[in-house]
Design goal:
The protein is α/β, with parallel strands linked by helices. The protein has helices at 27-33, 36-42, 74-93, 108-118, 148-152, 158-161, 185-192, 201-207, 209-219, 253-265, 286-298, and strands at residues 7-13, 46-52, 97-102, 122-127, 175-180, 197-200, 225-231, 269-275. The protein has eleven helices and eight strands. Helix 7 (185-192) links the parallel strand 5 and strand 6. The longest helix is centred in the N-terminal third of the chain and has 20 residues, at 74-93. It is globular.
């Protein structure tokens, strides 16, 4: 993200329908409480807070029937993601940089589909411990937040793959996953054949974060802009305890900041998701505060 001032619109999507552990619906409030708007203003950006989108409560959802148990709350999630898609497009058409606050990672089906519709030459940086590349046929849990990336590449239920338009929203070769370390068995097989570029924690350990990030950027260098979808469980649980699916061995504090700083230096980052902040599981809002710090690094914060 270039350091020149820009208009940033914050939109909350308090959705926790995509998984079974309550708490991420409070993520937008936690990130706001941690000072996201103030931090971005201090960097010279104009910040507009668009409030939260309406999301159905799990308590009001009908019981899943036999056909939907492998994609829980599918209809409601698709409806919210359609709404997210429309709001994202409006932001981009007004030359705003949208930051969407989750909620679970299923919101990215709406954000990324809109970013790709606005500019077909867009790359996706998926920062996550997981690949989210399951479908109802491969998922061991039935949680739609684990199907987000697959849906964006045209795999999965039509309710998800047809948001914006039918089929894949971007090429697999224009997607890079950073920080992967916890993949389901069938998901791993599908991922190997997908064409997605995966930078695992093993590779980050070997290469170092600077080399791994520049390697990822080189892979996407031909594209006009980038969308960053940041799942806070990409970080090690010692750094970010407030997530629903923690996995040991994740990014350190400095690795995560360096990743954001190098992405910012590319000048291509145009939009951001921050997802999976679970305040119930957090320690004095540490995870949300870290999310704000990482957003600041992505939007121009520098040491000197």
């Amino acid at each position: 993200m270039p350091s020149s001032p820009r208009t940033v619109r914050i939109i909350g999507v308090p959705m926790d329908l995509g998984q079974q552990r309550r708490g991420v619906d409070m993520g937008p409030s936690a990130l706001r409480y941690a000072g996201l708007g103030q931090r971005l203003r201090s960097l010279g950006h104009t910040v507009i807070d668009g409030g939260n989108l309406d999301v159905p409560l799990p308590e009001n959802e009908p019981a899943d029937d036999t056909e939907s148990v492998n994609a829980r709350h599918l209809q409601s999630i698709a409806g919210v993601c359609g709404d997210v898609h429309e709001h994202t497009l409006k932001c981009l058409e007004m030359d705003e940089s949208p930051i969407f606050l989750g909620g679970d990672h299923s919101i990215s089906i709406g954000t990324v589909s809109a970013v790709a519709a606005h500019d077909e030459h867009v790359g996706l940086i998926w920062v996550d411990a997981h690949a989210d590349y399951n479908t109802p046929e491969t998922t061991p849990s039935g949680n739609v937040h684990g199907m987000s990336l697959a849906a964006l590449l045209g795999h999965g239920p039509a309710q998800l793959t047809e948001i914006g338009h039918a089929g894949a929203k971007l090429k697999a070769s224009n997607v890079v996953i950073i920080g992967a370390r916890d993949l389901d068995p069938e998901e791993r097989i599908a991922l190997r054949d997908s064409g997605i570029h995966v930078v695992t924690m093993h590779e980050i350990d070997e290469m170092g974060m600077a080399a791994a990030t520049r390697h990822a950027l080189g892979h996407l260098n031909h594209l006009n802009q980038l969308h960053v979808s940041l799942d806070m469980d990409a970080l090690d649980p010692d750094e970010a305890p407030g997530v629903g699916t923690p996995v040991a061995g994740g990014l350190t504090y400095r690795e995560a900041h360096l990743l954001m700083e190098i992405l910012a230096e590319s000048g291509k980052v145009a939009s951001l998701d921050i997802v999976e902040v679970n305040t119930i599981l957090d320690d004095r809002n540490r995870t949300a505060e870290l999310g704000v710090e990482l957003a600041a690094s992505l939007f121009g914060q520098r040491i000197l």
